Amino acid sequence: MTPNWVDFAIIGGKAIFIWAFALSLIPVLIWFERKGAAFIQDRAGPNRAAVLGIRLAGLIHNIADVVKLLMKEMMIPPQVNRTYFMIAPVLGFTFILTSFAVIPWADHFLVAGRNISMQVADLNAGILYILAVTSLNVYGIVLAGWSSNNKFALMGGLRSTAQMISYEIPLGLALVGVFMVFSTVQLNEIVRGQGDLLWGFLPRWGVVVQPLGAILFIVAAFAETNRNPFDLPEGESEIVAGYHVEYSGMRFALFYMGEYAAMVLSAAMITTLFFGGWQIPWFPTETIVAHAHVWLKVMLGVGGVGALAFAVIMFIWARRMRVGGFGDMRDQEGNVLGTLNILVGVAMLFFLFKVAGMNSLPEWGARTVTLVAQISAFAVKTIFWCWVFIWVRWSLPRFRYDQLMRLGWKNMIPLSFVNILLTGLVLILMGK
Amino acid sequence: MAILFYIFAALAVLGGLLMVSLRNPLSGAFSLILSLVSLAGLFAMLNAEFVFILQVLVYAGAIMVLIIFTIMLLNLNKEELEEPPVAWMRLIFTALVCAVAAFGAIRIFGHVEAPKIEMTADFGSIEGVGRLMLSDFLYPFEVISLVLLVAVVGVVLLAKKVI
User: In a mutagenesis test of the A interface, which of B65, B66, B67, B129 is the best target, namely the one with the most A β-carbons within 10 Å?
Assistant: First the structure.
């Protein structure tokens, strides 16, 4: 029996794709966080770090961060439980990356007689797999808090555990309504169910048919990721930094990255369940495939013109930097970026010129265009929800711990039961 | 696939052994998690996908978190964790009993053919398990939910002094 090398390669490729997607979003989100905080607090934000004069509006600061964290000594305080102290950061990050396996990012890709599903594992248990794996994620935090042998760290770990168990219940119950409406737990089927139109014009997204469920899920997702207003596990004013107070260097960085990876996961889940996943509203897959040449032309045209317009802005900026600039290579940043963008724009317009005469694309081309369009739709929605996480963090104050528990147990859990009852009633009345 | 079975089985047994032999309660709890997760792996190999997910979600995820939560709140000090002197007689006796039991099990079950079961298309899936629970096993299912309700009410009764 010959092993199916192609199948192995496809699965490996898909796993690498979703990991690359999640991991490459982490530095972007850190940049979002800094620039977003600066924007909301009316200041400039990071703008100093530069490589050969290229600053990319502060994105280069992430490289400086990584270099700093890699060079830093990884302190292991003498009082800690060494084994658990070392394992804890790895555990948390591993579980989060593992849960990306069932997130679908595009419709089935039909090529060369193969039907490739665009998710790493199309499990029958679907979303429950994410719940199961993220419920193990608590151990990373608990172990970090306990093994540090530090009162503040232990408090942080305890808070985090209690909070994550409490909010897992409304999170799971909010999902029940979605399962009832789409009558499946498989994520790809849920997304496909969101492609229909309601009353002929409204996309049947999860948020439209499950508004209360969507709100409950999003709030619970904030609590699960330990983000503000639920970031009591690391409340600086009371317990220094919570469970990772004793960590330094790259081990601390793993916690830091884990928080953003969890954000990406939550954003991807919110997108998939309630905001149509990879669906482009009003354009189901077959429609895009049938009109793929139009999509290709529009994408190339918008991309090319956008790149050229951005290049013009860059050149104007570089001109203004001539007077009163920094007096070093940073003044040339606009020119460099502008030139690159002109190249990209011209290349795109050249391809547009090449395909302008086409009235249809070959099958594989049409499928590829659809794939790119759907991946972009998924990425845009996910990044938007990541931005909402940051937006909320810099807009709302932190809860007090009893308020947090009251909200979770006395408001959200009863509300999620009400949501299930209402959904069931409506489904019965509609005769399903 | 057989090698996976042996790995999971060995890990499950190892987790159980460590659970009873380690003095540190938190290490014990984590050994139990290892055992539970290995069992989940065995369920997954038996095509029982839903049971696998529930094993991880409920046992390894929820129940063990509560146990660890309690252990962390106990705040044990060093003296309570010291090794007691080894009770050799007990150890030898236990080993003997285990050896006899293992020998008997191998003799009895060693040549029993596993019955061939026709697997339905939805075996182990959520749909299959759900349909079974609400049709053939409806009565036990309802009884179990009543038992759980009694437990919940009992906890409230114990925890609240004035109702």
Answer: B65
- Domains in chain B: how many in total? 2
With a CB cutoff of 8 Å and minimum separation 6, the contacts of A347 are A304
Q: Is B113 within the bounds of a domain?
A: no
Per the domain annotation, does B39 fall within a domain? yes
Contact B60 A123 (CB under 8 A): no
Q: Which domain holds residue B75?
A: 1-93
Residues B88 and B46 in one domain: yes
Contact B65 A154 (CB under 8 A): no
Domain assignment of residue B83, yes or no: yes
CATH number at residue B86: 1.20.120.1200
User: Measured between CA atoms, how close is A211 to chain B, in angstroms?
Assistant: 25
Q: Per residue of chain A (432 residues), what is the pLDDT tens digit?
A: 455 787 788 888 888 888 888 888 888 888 888 888 898 888 888 888 777 777 777 788 888 888 888 888 888 888 887 888 888 888 888 888 888 888 888 877 777 677 777 788 777 777 888 888 888 888 888 888 888 888 888 888 888 888 888 888 898 898 888 888 888 888 888 888 888 777 777 788 878 888 898 999 999 998 888 887 887 777 777 777 777 878 887 888 888 888 888 899 999 999 988 888 888 888 887 787 778 888 888 888 888 888 888 888 888 888 887 777 777 777 777 788 888 888 988 888 888 888 777 777 777 778 888 888 888 889 999 999 999 998 988 888 888 888 888 888 889 999 999 999 999 998 888 876
> Which chain A residues are Cβ-neighbours of B52 within 8 angstroms?
125
If asked whether residues B126 and B74 sit together in one domain, one would say no
Is residue B110 in some structural domain? no
What are A's interface residues with B at a Cβ cutoff of 8 A?
84, 123-125, 128-129, 131-133, 135-136, 138-139, 142, 145-146, 154, 157-158, 161-162, 165, 168, 185
- Give this complex's ipTM: 0.76
B6 lies in the same domain as B82: yes
Tell me if A249 sits within 8 A of A338, measured CB to CB: no
